[in-house]
Amino acid sequence: MINKWIKQIVLFISKERTWSVITALSTAIAATAAFLAVYQTHTTWRERLESERPYLVIEKPLMKQIFQSNKYMFVFDLKNIGGRSASQLFGKVYIFKKNSPYDCT
After folding, report:
1. pTM metric for this prediction
2. Among 10, 42, 75, 86, whose Cα sits 20 to 30 Å from the Cα of 62?
3. Is residue 95 a contact partner of residue 61, using CB atoms and an 8 Å limit?
4. How far is residue 94's CA from residue 98's CA, in Å, rounded to a whole number?
């Protein structure tokens, strides 16, 4: 009885169609594993970039009136607290008169 099973298994494996199916399944598994590896690498790379991005903090903002004039000077100390230095910095400063409709105080 066991010999009969072994002969059927050997006959099944010796068919060309069986090897084609095994090859196709192996290829599909390898392609899925490669896709998952690329996806994991991309996700890790994006998380690393996000964790190392530069963060700037304004410390000790100061407004000084220029001596004997109606002009003012603004001084901002910026501190980089991120994982890497900022290469480009762009900002806007909005100045409102006291008691204006846009006054946020």
Report:
1. 0.48
2. 86
3. no
4. 13
Residues of 68-77 as b/e, b for ≥16 C-beta within 10 angstroms? eeeeeeeeee
Q: Are 72 and 66 contacting, i.e. CB atoms less than 8 angstroms apart?
A: yes
Distance, CA of 62 to CA of 77 (rounded, Å): 9
**pLDDT tens readout for residues 39-82:** 999 999 999 888 888 888 888 878 787 888 888 788 888 888 87
For the chain, percent of residues with pLDDT exceeding 70: 87
Both tokens assigned to 74: 């603004």
Question: In the numeric block, which tokens belong to residue 46?
Answer: 């994006």
Indicate the DSSP class of residue 55. -
Asked whether 92 and 58 are in contact (CB, 8 A), the reply is no
8 A C-beta contact, residue 89 and residue 80: no
